From TrEMBL:
Quaternary state and interactors: Homodimer.
Binding-site list for NADP(+): 168-170, 234
PROSITE patterns the UniProt entry points to: THF_DHG_CYH_1, THF_DHG_CYH_2
Record's protein name: Bifunctional protein FolD
Amino acid sequence: MTVVIDGKAAAASVIEAVTSAATTLESSGHRKPGLAVVIVGDDPASHAYVSAKSRMAKQCGFNSIQHTLPEETSQEDLMALVAALNADPEIDGILVQLPLPKHLDSEPVIQSILPEKDVDGLHVVNAGKLATGDLKTGLLSCTPAGAMILVRQIHGKDLSGLNALVIGRSNLFGKPMAQLLLNASATVTIGHSKSRDLPELARQADILVAAVGRAEMVKADWLKPGATVIDVGINRVAAPEKGEGKFKLVGDVAFAECKPIAKAISPVPGGVGPMTIAMLMANTVIAAHRRAGVAAPSF
Ligand SMILES: Nc1nc(=O)c2c([nH]1)NC[C@@H]1CN(c3ccc(C(=O)N[C@@H](CCC(=O)O)C(=O)O)cc3)C=[N+]21
């Protein structure tokens, strides 16, 4: 029987560990971990994600602060807010929700966050530490770190001898995911839109990670029988069966047809998504421990 990987349950156990670490830190005389989430503009999907993050931060016992800036915010004003949060001794973690409105350039904003407060793990210092195999002193990008916990549930920590294919090459996900898999000794391939034959690459993968942003692109005949499939895609598609004008979330993997071929498969929703938020909380509690000069937990 195929294992359907339960991202909600895995996320709940990370959250439990984060909450207990936060409680221990506070009861040893330190302040609560502080997370600042910055959102610019009024994209409804972004607001939904940010509320979920703020809610979870409170549940973990953090001091959670949300900064909502108007759509027409200037680059200068956004950078000034980040500078203020960098200097704020109560703040351990800063997250600037992406994407930003089109007139803003996200890269200088992300790179202006202090690396030790970069709970998204997107600063070049954190990306560089991961790329050089230092997984201990930086902060890991949340979605890859969460996806890796799901991979570990199936295969353990050592992926020696296993072929892994990551489809997608973004700095946000594909590249850091490939680094984590490589660090666990998998043989890693990164496929993308310019790859010659993705289905053929996929058929060699013991671990297939899809992050392309194309609804149900990975089909059953792409899979090596017994592969582990991690679906990172979140696509909103029309769902006429739910009623006129309704939508549903689907991944980058055609779940129903792939499930019988796979050894294990993560669903959408309920797979990697909940892990992303859990790892954001994990990074925040890690950053708070380091700031307090106390040994940080690992996840
Ligand atoms: N600076 C920044 N950091 C991010 O980590 C970041 C971001 N910007 N911008 C947007 C993306 C997307 N993202 C998700 C988080 C949780 C779910 C999640 O929990 N999804 C649920 C379903 C939620 C629903 O029903 O809409 C699930 O897959 O089960 C999904 C996507 C974080 N992102």
